[in-house]
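Section 5: illustrative case.
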C-alpha cells in the first residue's frame, strides 16, 4: 500500500522520547514545536501519491514506493529520480534539506556497492540488504547521524578520558546484538523521521577508537534513544509573520543513546575504522544523497532570486542598472547550480551496472553551495535596506484599528497593497534574517562537512593530471 501523508502521521505517533524546553513530549506529532514541519512532510507523501507516475515505482513485491528507493540501473532511472527530487523540493521551495528522499538516496548508494560490504562481512552485508528491503518496501523516512559531538577536537573520541561515552560507542556485545551508549552531534529531521541511520565520518585512531567505528539503524522510538531538540522556530511563529519558519522548520536534534540494544540484523559495520569510512567514501552514498541536495539547492536559489526580484519591484528599484546586476548575479548562482544538477543527471559514471552520479561534480557542488550561500544572503540584504525591519511587530497589529490605519498609510508601494507589502517583506526577513534563516546559513555551510573538509575532498578528487597536462603542453612549446 502506498504511503500517504495520513499513514505517515499515524506511524509517527510512536511514543518516542523527545525533549524540548525542559519537557519530555508525550505526543510530538501534535506538539506546536513540531507539528507544522511534520505536516509539511505529510504533504510531501500526499504529493507523491497524487503524482505517482513521476514520483513512484512498483517493486517486485508489488509495493508502490518513492523513486528515491529505485536503484539507478539505467541512465533514465537516474534522471527520473533526479527530477522527482526536484519536484519534491519545489513543494517546500527548497527549504527542507532532509526530506525523506535524502537518506533513502544515501542508502541506495550503499546498495549499488553492496559487494564492498560483502567483502567486509557477509553477515553485515545481509543485514544491510535486508534493512534496505524493509525500509524501502515500507517507504520509511530516515534521518542520519554521522558526526560525533565536538568535545575536544584535538583528541579522538577514545582520548576523551573524562567520559569515553561522550561519543556514541559500543559498551558490550552479546548474542542478540550490541549495546551502545553516547551521543551523535545532530540529526536533522529526528523529530520527523521514522528511523535513524548511524554512521561515523570522522578520523578515528587504530587501536584506540574501534568502539566508535559503527554503523547501524534503529527506529527512533527504540527504548533508550533520547532526542534532545534544539529550539523550535515554528513554535509560536504565526505563518503570516514567519511563512517559512512556521512551515519548514525541519528540526535538528542531538541523539543520545542510553544503553540501546541494537540487534545484529541492524548492524552494518562493527568496530571497523576503515570500513566506516569506506561505507561513505567508497560507495555511491554521498553522490546519491548529494544529488537530492543539489536539486533542493537549485530550487532554493531560484526561490531566493524570485524573492529578491519581487522585493525590488515592490520598492520600485528593479529598473536601476545596479539593481538589475545584483538580481542577475542571483539568477547566475541559480542557473550555475541548475546546470551542475543537469550535468550530474546526464553524465553519470557506470559502476557495477549502475549509473551513479560523478563524484567530482558533486564535490564541486558541495564547495560551490557553501561559498555562494553567504553571498546570496548578503546580496538580498543589500537590496532590502530597512524595509525588512520597518514592519508591524506581528499579525496582531492588523487587529488594532489605530495601528492598522498607520500601516495602511505608511506601507506604500506602487504595485502592492500595504498588506501585500508587509507580507512580502516578512517573507524576505524570514528567508534572510530570522533565526530560521540563520540556521539555514549554518546548514548550508556545514551539513555536507565543514568547508575545510569539502575543499580537501575536492582537492583529492579533481583530475589534476589532466589540468597539469594542459600546462605541460604550453611549457613544451
Ligand atoms: C544545521 C545543521 C544540521 C546538521 N545535520 C546533520 C545531520 O542530520 N546528520 C549529521 O550527521 N550531521 C549533521 N550536521 C553536522 C555536520 O555534518 C557537521 O557540522 C560538519 O560535518 C562539521 O563538523 P563539526 O560541526 O564537528 O565541525 P568541526 O569539525 O568541529 O569544525 C568546525 C570548525 O573548526 C575548524 N576546524 C576543525 N578542524 C579543523 C581542521 N582539521 N582543519 C582546519 N580547520 C578545522 C574549522 O574552522 C571548522 O569549520 C549538521 C550541522 C548543522 C549546522
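Designed sequence:
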Amino acid at each position: 500500500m502506498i504511503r500517504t501523508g495520513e499513514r505517515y502521521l499515524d506511524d509517527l505517533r510512536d511514543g518516542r522520547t523527545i525533549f524540548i524546553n525542559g519537557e519530555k513530549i508525550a505526543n510530538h506529532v501534535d506538539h506546536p514545536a513540531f507539528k507544522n514541519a511534520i505536516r509539511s512532510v505529510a504533504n510531501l507523501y500526499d504529493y507523491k501519491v497524487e503524482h505517482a507516475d513521476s514520483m513512484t515505482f512498483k517493486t517486485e513485491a508489488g509495493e508502490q514506493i518513492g523513486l528515491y528507493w529505485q536503484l539507478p540501473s539505467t541512465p533514465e532511472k537516474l534522471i527520473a529520480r533526479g527530477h522527482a527530487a526536484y519536484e519534491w523540493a519545489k513543494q517546500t521551495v527548497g527549504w527542507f534539506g532532509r526530506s525523506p528522499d535524502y537518506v533513502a538516496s544515501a542508502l541506495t548508494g550503499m546498495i549499488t556497492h553492496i559487494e564492498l560490504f560483502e567483502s567486509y562481512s557477509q553477515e553485515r552485508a545481509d543485514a544491510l540488504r535486508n534493512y534496505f528491503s524493509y525500509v524501502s518496501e515500507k517507504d520509511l523516512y530516515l534521518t542520519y547521524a554521522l558526526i560525533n559531538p565536538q568535545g575536544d577536537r584535538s583528541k579522538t573520541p577514545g582520548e576523551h578520558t573524562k567520559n569515553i561515552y561522550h561519543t556514541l560507542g559500543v559498551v558490550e556485545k552479546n548474542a542478540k546484538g550490541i549495546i551502545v551508549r553516547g551521543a551523535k552531534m545532530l540529526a536533522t529531521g529526528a523529530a520527523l523521521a521514522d528511523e535513524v541511520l548511524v554512521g561515523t565520518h570522522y578520523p578515528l585512531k587504530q587501536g584506540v577508537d574501534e568502539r566508535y567505528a559503527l554503523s547501524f539503524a534503529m527506529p527512533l522510538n527504540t527504548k533508550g534513544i533520547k532526542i534532545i531538540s534544539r529550539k523550535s522556530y515554528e513554535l509560536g511563529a504565526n505563518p503570516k509573520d514567519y511563512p517559512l519558519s512556521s512551515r519548514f522548520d525541519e528540526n535538528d536534534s542531538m541523539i543520545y543513546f542510553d544503553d540501546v540494544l541494537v540487534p545484529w540484523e541492524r548492524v552494518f559495520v562493527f568496530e571497523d575504522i576503515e570500513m566506516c569510512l569506506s561505507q561513505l567514501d567508497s560507495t555511491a552514498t554521498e553522490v546519491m544523497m548529494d544529488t537530492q541536495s543539489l536539486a533542493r539547492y537549485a530550487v532554493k536559489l531560484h526561490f531566493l532570486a524570485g524573492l529578491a526580484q519581487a522585493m525590488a519591484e515592490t520598492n520600485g528599484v528593479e529598473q536601476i542598472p545596479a539593481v538589475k546586476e545584483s538580481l542577475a548575479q542571483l539568477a547566475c548562482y541559480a542557473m550555475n547550480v541548475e546546470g551542475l544538477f543537469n550535468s550530474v543527471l546526464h553524465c553519470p559514471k557506470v559502476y557495477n551496472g549502475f549509473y551513479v552520479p560523478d563524484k567530482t561534480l558533486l564535490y564541486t557542488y558541495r564547495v560551490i553551495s557553501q561559498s555562494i550561500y553567504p553571498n546570496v544572503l548578503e546580496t538580498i540584504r543589500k537590496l532590502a535596506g530597512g524595509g525588512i525591519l520597518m514592519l508591524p511587530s506581528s499579525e496582531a497589529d492588523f487587529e488594532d484599528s489605530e495601528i492598522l490605519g498607520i500601516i495602511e498609510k505608511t506601507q506604500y508601494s506602487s504595485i502592492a497593497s500595504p498588506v501585500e507589502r508587509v507580507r512580502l517583506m516578512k517573507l524576505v526577513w524570514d528567508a534572510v534574517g530570522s533565526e530560521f534563516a540563520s540556521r539555514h546559513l549554518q546548514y548550508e555551510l556545514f551539513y555536507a562537512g565543514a568547508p575545510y573538509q569539502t575543499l580537501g575532498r575536492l582537492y583529492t578528487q579533481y583530475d589534476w593530471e589532466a589540468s597539469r597536462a594542459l600546462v605541460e603542453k604550453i611549457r613544451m612549446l
